[in-house]
Amino acid sequence: MSNLKRQFIMMPYFFNLTNSNLTYLDILTYVAIKSFDNSNNDCFPSYETIAERAGLGRTFISESIGRLETSNFIKIDRRGYQKPNKCYPNRYSFTIDKDYFCQIPHEIFKTTDLTNCERAMLLALRQFAVTPYQLYGSLKEIAHDLHLPLTTINKQYYSLVKKGYLDKSSLKRKVTLLTSRIDWDYTAYLTFEKPAKLPELTLMIA
Fold it and tell me: Which residues of the chain have pLDDT under 70?
């Protein structure tokens, strides 16, 4: 990394959500947990801490974590009770055999004008990046690859456009631009003397 202090969260690709019994809000849960990741590739946030960061309810977080575990996106070490009716926080680790990753800036959690659904959809759309700021694919193709209803994509997509997080001016050419409301460009924070091996971001649309 360069001397510039900035953190990014490694998010694996979440496609075929319904086939994995996941919702697109589960992507937000994953990124919230992963944002606590340490150098040992694990972390120990409580349900309440995860819920606060994600902006989601504790009950949803508990159910979402179960789905992520079942789908093999996270591994959980349940560490038992520290005293009656009070558990130690789970230990979360992350599967490292996922083929592709997106770089998500921590600033995703500092935006105050996004709903939970908008934030989760922004993460889902980020998977279609071919450059740090350029997404490729029609909304119909995106809905197909995510296995989400087109109406769900449309609602959150156009809400993100209205709030200035997406620029749809090139959508007829299957291109959507991420705007500078969030700095997505991780490449500016990499050293060029010893470049890191980054996952390939180019996505082939079926």
Answer: 1-6, 80-86, 96-100, 188-206
